[in-house]
Structure formats: C-alpha cells, structure tokens
Amino acid sequence: MEALLTNRKWCAKNKRWRALAFLPFLDCLAFFHIGWRARRPRWTGMGVIFAAVWLAILAWFCFTGGLGKIGMTFLFVLLGIAAYALGIVFAFLSTGDYLKLLASLEARQPQEPELLKQKGWRVKNSLWMLWSLVPGLGTVSFFHVGVRMKSRGMKLAGFAFLLFTTLPVGLWMLGTTLGGYIPSLSADALLLTRLLIFGVFTEVLLYFVQLYLCCVIRRGYLRAVAPAWEASRVRYACLNSTKWRVLQSWWMLLCLVPYCGGASLIYAGARTKKRKWIIAGAAITATLLAATIIGRAGQNAGDTALALAYALHRVFRATAGFASLCFCTVIREEYLAARAAAVDGYASEVDRALDAQARVQRRVSGVQAETPQPMAKPAAR
C-alpha cells in the first residue's frame, strides 16, 4: 500500500478523474467514478445529489426559458454556481482518502485471472457495452452487469436510467399524439416544445453519464465474472461450442415477432425452471394484450378516447417489445449455463442418455472380463 502511495506515476494516473469536476452538469461523474472504484457508497450518493441538482436547474430553465419569477431564476443561478464550486472543492478534498482506499484495495486484491490477459475474451465479454452506444438503451448494460455480478446497486442504477431517459420522451410522445387528435391541446404546443427540449437535454447528459460509467465498471466486471466463466467451461464442454450456443438461443428470435416477445421469456423460464422469467414473460404478454384491447376499444369511441387509446397502444407496444428484446439478451448467458447443467455438459439429453448407457455397458463388460471362469472338469477315464 505504501509503495503505491509513494509512486508518483500511479498517483498521477488515479487523479485524472478530478478533471470531470470542472465540467458543468457532468461533475457527478467524478463521484460516481471514485464511489465505484473505492467501494464507497457515500461518494456515489454525492454524485446522485449533484446529478439531481443539475437536472432541477435544467428543468427550471427549459420550462420557464429563464423568464419565470426573477427571484426563483436568481436562486437557480446561484444554485448552479454553488454546485459547480462545491463539486470542485469536494473532488480535491476526497482525493487523499480515495488514493488510500484504492491503494488498500489493490494491495489486498488477489492475482488477476489469466483470462484477463486474453484480448479476445475481453472483447467478447464486453459486448454488453454496445447497448450504451444506443441513446436511451444504456440502461440494459447496467441490468446485464447487475444480473451477471448479482449486484443490486447496478440493477437500481439501471432502473434510475430507465426512468429518467424514457419519462420525458414518453410524455412528449403522449402529448403530441393527443394533440394531433384533440384540437383543444393545440394551445399547449409551447409546453410540449419545452418538454421536448428538456427530454433531449436530459437524454444527451445521461448518454455521456452511462457511457462513461460503463467504461469505468468494465474492468471490475471482467474480473468478477472470469472465475465463474472459466469454471463453467471446464465443467460443461458444450458451452465451448459456438454451434451449440447458437442452436440453444433460437428462442430469442421470438422477440422479433410482433406480440411474441413475452413467449420467448416464458419458454426460457419453462426450460430452466426459472419462475421469475415466466412471470416477466407473462407480464409482457399481458401488457401487449391490454394495449391491443385498448386500441380496439378506442376505435368505437369518440375522438378523445380514440386519441388516448392510440397513444397508450403505441407506448405500451413499443415498451413491451424493447423490454422483451433487452431481457432476452441479459438472461442469455444464464440460460445457456442452466441448459448445460441440465444436460450435464452434453449437446442434448439424448447424448447424455446414450453416453450413460455406453458407460454402463463398458462397466458390465469389464466386470465380466475380470470374473474368473470356472475350470472345466477333467474328462472321466
């Protein structure tokens, strides 16, 4: 530990995160960084507070255009200046404790698995980061990490990103759909425009936040899943076969069929006896059926009911479709491991049964060969 703290190169490398504190609206990344690396929830909570403050400031200026009450506008300006200054001050005050905690963790850390030295393995097990490159779908990356690492914090982060990335855009879609069918909502066009601006700004900020966080947690994720990955491949030979993995993943294609996304999860849950997957698939199927019923019922109603029904149908159908696709990609590795365990590493249950019969036959043949045969009686003279 002391050797790391006296290493100038190591200290300089682990102080680069302080540059994030000088970025308005993104200084929360500095505290998310040190909170994850040093396993310090207090710093992570501080990052959440800074993010909430900046979102409140952004919402005020988006919805009022800076033309609201002078006192409130001045208050939010002061709040922004204070948040910016406090972020820089807290970042520099936390540097010393962060370096000590990080040095202690690295000194007590066991030797890294050999798999981390293989570039191909690192790339293949980092494909979940591609979700973070798609605006609005970075939340899937955190759900993937949470499921593989069994981390409740990562799942909560995924829910938080899902809420803040879909709510503004979803409200805007609902408002525009209703406005197209109900003439009385045309007067609220300015409110819809401001809601759209707020949604776009929020989406852009959260895009950079989740992209940076995925890069930060990648190394820890690979280090955490490497032992279990290697043990499963040694125990179950079929997991090393690309052909077997592809053939066992055919059920994911159901997500591409309209209104069949829930069926893929129900199938996966039934094959692996995972009740939570069956419940999730049933919930998605029920949502799709409800959206269809609402859409059909609205066709026989007035203009207002028709507009509302059509808007709800669009939102529910899109949400359920994307949810099933994302859920299937997240659980795929766990599904394959469960199937490999069910067939005990063989390509199928038939191969396992045939091999068991062959082993029994070899064992019986070996016992018969080792059993001494009775000597023939001498012929009578």
Which stretches of 5+ consecutive residues score pLDDT under 50? 371-381
Order of helices and strands: HHHHHHHHHHHHHHH
What Rg is obtained from the alpha carbons, in whole angstroms? Answer: 29 Å
Category from helices, strands and their pairing: mainly alpha
**Largest sheet geometry:** none
Q: Please tally the helical runs, counting DSSP H or I stretches of 4 or more residues.
A: 15
The whole-number mean of residue pLDDT values reads: 80
Task: Tell me the fraction of residues in β-strands, as a range.
Answer: under 5%
Task: Write down the overall geometry.
Answer: flat
Number of strands: 0
Termini separation comes to 95 Å
Helicity level, as a percent range?
over 70%
List the SSEs and their pairings.
Layout (H helix, E strand, L loop, with lengths): L1 H4 L2 H6 L14 H10 L3 H24 L5 H24 L1 H14 L10 H6 L14 H11 L2 H30 L7 H47 L6 H6 L13 H12 L2 H24 L4 H40 L6 H22 L11
Helix pairs in contact: 3-4, 3-10, 4-5, 4-10, 8-9, 8-10, 8-14, 9-10, 9-14, 12-13, 12-14, 13-14
